[in-house]
Amino acid sequence: xxxxxxxxxxxxxxxxxxxxxDGHDVCGVFTQPDKxxxxxxxxxxxxxxxYALSQGLPVYQPLKMRDGEAMDIIRELAPELIVVAxxxxxxxxxxxxxxxxxxxxxxxxxxxxxxxxxPINWAILDGETETGVSIMYMAKELDAGDVILQVxxxxxxxxxxxxxTGRLAELGAGALSEAVRALxxxxxxxxxxxxxxxxxxxxxxxxxxxxxxxxxxxxxxCQVRGLIPWPxxxxxxxxxxxxxxKTAPGRSTExxxxxxxxxxxxxxxxxxxxxxxxxxTELQAEGGxxxxxxxxxxxxxxxx
Length: 304
Hints:
Blueprint: E1 2-7, H1 10-21, E2 25-30, E3 35-37, E4 42-44, H2 47-54, E5 59-60, H3 69-77, E6 81-85, H4 93-97, E7 103-107, E8 115-116, H5 119-125, E9 130-137, E10 147-154, H6 161-185, E11 200-201, H7 217-226, E12 233-237, E13 240-249, E14 260-264, E15 267-271, E16 277-285, E17 290-292, H8 293-299
Parallel strand pairs: 1-2, 1-6, 2-5, 6-7, 8-11
Antiparallel strand pairs: 3-4, 7-9, 9-10, 12-13, 13-16, 14-15, 15-16, 16-17
């Protein structure tokens, strides 16, 4: 099938790679404009652009989707299908309706739950035990189109948003491959979403970072795992501010939340709400490097 692909981050690369490996005619790739990166502010390609160029695919980076330029490109490319995976721009209805097979999206949640910008993070933040990927027809409303198929997967107790993103990217690529085959042979299903069950996964912000130790240990663990790689959970321990990257279950305690119970080879144990505790096992001090808490304590002992 002749396909126009739209995507930007690493998550989308797996889907584009699968389309190429399946032998489809990827006639073009839309991705976000290059952005300044690091201190030198050198323009950096998106992961999708890097992969597309490595495969000799034509890349387009329109600044806007409604000024006519992007639509002119689409008319010239004449795709049979548009595939979108974490592109980061909203497509006007004219684009969605142009290809004969329409436009479909690879969305990293079990719709209608977690529509929006950060579904993987919010599934972990909310303590979900299962998530997945939905392949859906795109509609005017955000992530509200009819579902072609879904694939579910459990969320590991220690799994963070970064590792889960990698797994869902591969699951999504496989589901996309199956969906495109079904579209081509006319067997693709079309299941409307139940609006009564919909929820929204808003963008993340630094305001979500500070840890409230009065919350239960599992809720804090979900916060830590859900905010990786950005903006990361933060906490002040023994007068030092840290980013917190990993935790482990602690023990029962009657100490006040936020009290440091121990600091040693297992990490820094902190009392939480509900009579529980957590070990902070991996952290990063301000101006320092990410490291195991035990390694940090060797040079910065904490009095308990």
